Amino acid sequence: MRARRVIVRFLNRLKPRAIGIDLHWLPHTGGAIGVARLAKECHAQVAVNFRWLGTLRTLLDFCRAEIFSR
Fold first, then answer.
1. CA 41, CA 12: separation in Å to the nearest integer?
2. Which residue among 19, 22, 51, 64 sits deepest, i.e. has the most Cβ atoms within 10 Å of its Cβ?
3. Distance CA 47, CA 39 (A)
4. Minimal CA–CA distance to 10: which of 19, 22, 47, 28?
5. Rounded to two decimals, what is the model's pTM?
6. Residue 12: which residues within 8 A CB-CB, separation 6 or more?
7. Per residue in 2-26, pLDDT tens?
8. CA angle, 44 as apex, 33 and 15 as ends, to 5°?
């Protein structure tokens, strides 16, 4: 509950035009969805977007390493 209060307090101080949440790995998606819900509660009119650039970059690095190791 304390984490929720801290996140809500932080979000309420913002005046965003959009909110982006980065998804790195599948285990983090539950927390990211929870943060998105809180963001919508605090800023219902603001678009909330999920990004996965970190995951894409990691996947490409892995594929590159796999190709060059052959």
1. 10
2. 19
3. 9
4. 19
5. 0.66
6. 42
7. 889 999 999 999 999 999 887 766 5
8. 100
- Distance, CA of 6 to chain centre: 17
Place 31 in a pLDDT band, splitting at 50, 70 and 90: confident
Residue 60 in contact with residue 33, Cβ under 8 Å? no
Residue-range domain boundaries for the chain: 2-68
- In the predicted model, is pLDDT for residue 62 greater than 80? no
The CA–CA distances, whole Å, from 54 to 9, 40, 41, 51 equal 27, 23, 26, 8
- Spatial CB neighbours of 19, under 8 Å, sequence gap ≥ 6: 36, 39, 43, 46, 47, 48, 49
